[in-house]
Amino acid sequence: MRYGSSVTKTPSPPLPPILRDPLIPVDKVSARRNASGPSTKKLFPAWLWRRKPKDYDLAQGLLSSVAVDEEDHFGLQSFSRRELLVATDSFSDKNILVRGGLGKVYKGQLEDGSLVEVKLVRKHATEIDMEMMSIATHSNVIRARGFCITQKEKLLVYPYMVNGCVAFWLRERKDSLPPLDWLTRMKIALGAAKGLAYLHHICPREIIHRDVKASNILLDENFEAVLADLSLGEFVDCCGDDIVTPVKGTIGHIAPECLAGKCSVKNDVFGYGVFLLELITAQRPFDLARLANDNDMNFLDWVKDIYKEREWKVIVDAELQGEFIDEEVEELLQIALICTRDDPEGRPTMLEVARRLEVAYHLAKGEAEWSMEDFKEDIFEGRDVENFTLDKLHAATEGFSNKIISEDSFNVIYKGWLDGYPIAVKRYNSQSLECYFERELEIGRICLPIPNLVHVIGFCRMPEVQLLVLQLMVNGSVDSWLTGRHESRAPLTWLQRRNIALGAARGLAHLHDKCEKKIIHCDVKAANILLDDNFEAVVTDFKSAKIMDHNQTHITTTVTGTIGHIAPEYLASGKCSDKTDVFSYGAFLLELITGQKIIDLIHVADENDRMCVDWVKKNYEEGRWESMADNEGGDDFMEAVAKQLVKIAVLCTRHDPDRRPRMSNIVMMLEFI
Known about the structure:
Blueprint: H1 58-63, E1 77-78, H2 81-87, E2 96-100, E3 103-109, E4 115-120, H3 127-135, E5 146-149, E6 154-159, H4 166-172, H5 182-202, E7 206-208, E8 217-219, E9 225-227, E10 234-236, E11 243-244, E12 262-263, H6 265-281, H7 288-291, H8 299-308, H9 326-339, H10 350-364, H11 373-379, E13 386-387, H12 390-396, E14 404-407, E15 411-418, E16 421-428, H13 434-446, E17 456-461, E18 466-471, H14 478-482, H15 494-513, E19 518-520, E20 529-531, E21 537-539, E22 546-548, E23 555-556, H16 568-573, E24 575-576, H17 578-594, H18 598-604, H19 612-621, H20 639-652, H21 663-671
Parallel strand pairs: 1-5, 13-17
Antiparallel strand pairs: 2-3, 3-4, 4-6, 5-6, 7-10, 8-9, 11-12, 14-15, 15-16, 16-18, 17-18, 19-22, 20-21, 23-24
């Protein structure tokens, strides 16, 4: 048992007070289906981490050297066995926190007075295990403090988590201790989601935990969740591809596809959904005592059946004594059930889950005004815009050779390699364009780094040249796929088109509502929506963008943009607002639906139609919308998806800007398609 055991020389700190406030319900978390496509390594620059050579033998290095260089051992401190013997009172049984199938964990106190946990690592632990346990530097993921390796055993040293694990508080706490209240459970759910989102999306090497459960979520002195025990984890070097491995994990938490040996980040999403159900019900997902009842069924099926019958209150932990708001619990139940869908493609990402819970938790604390800034700085810890030398970028692009991704009258974009990772380097064609460079750099800093918006990695500003270093999008622009210019020549499926529409909408919604300044893109079109290795949409090219204060409804400015995508009020008077982007987004949707450029659609329109939008509306009202759909979408034509996309496009391109939806509302519409 983790909580309550002690090292006699240092008493455990007192429990902190726990706050309680009502929660305003949040919208359902919806599943984002990631379409399959070419995959490559994610862009995690080597200046963030340094991977060790595969032939490096950590154990031999430790045994042959007394003085240990931190650089050679993943930044971990080397402890002598004697230090750990003293700290744990010779590994006394009274200091055992956990007895598990993979070894024991002891509580200890180092000479400096700090409390630690000393874990006896399984015998076949390798350098990869050591790297995994040291690489994560996020507050919601435990990081090994040090190690000790001898010829007989391997020990890892972690900071001590004074409040033990979540499982203890749900099922094993002493009667003298108060139960976890609902707000604290929400806080724990959010912290665990952030930790997993970091491992999946931000960590220098993508990690799948593979054993997400209440006993592997620890609690610090402030009841902040800390994800622990990466002993079953897997590195993912080829993002987007499933790994085939032996089945690992805990019964009741293992995703169905794992039984076939398929391992991906969606396995963790399933495990997290089961963990949410643990938080709500306080029950074990696999309980032999419960299974002894002949009328009992699978834990998940039981929860789903009760939820369908709207009788979910009976499964809520009785220790809460009704101290919760119905909508709160129902929302978390919805998230849990979406996370535990049988189809892994139907589950959301942990980043999506974390965002939803962030909103819910701020509202639960009674905060009418909230910001994503803390979450952004937390989960994307360690990434910033770097100032590169011209020589470095010259070398990265082989002297700005003919490896050109795209070019126009403003700039040329080169493909390059920096520390072994692919990048895109945008070079402005003239010093007179410096204002565009400065604008894109400023927006890159404001938005750093957000999914669905291109990441500005760095820049180089010289009197004779201005360069931006961007994340390379390996699948090019949506425009290249629609016009057949992409090298693969494969058409986009309708599921991919729906996901692209959703990703672009999320990026624009963030620009409008979540950045410290309101940003209007002013040139939304298929050529400015890029696709990463998972065909996730990324909004790029901010040279026409306008920056406003959030209290401003509009600004009057010089008209910029692309013919066919410019909103009528903007074209007529220069009046620019977030609804300007909504119109352009609607035009982009028409490109996505029809497979044609807006300028080409204008020529297709009837002679009496002044805009392609009128042509689309006429076809839609006459029930001939199918005739507009791109016949290159393959045999998987999804009528419901195509029809809803046309509906949204028509709403977005209304002549009156006040009648167009906000981008945040469009995101919600697309999530429910």
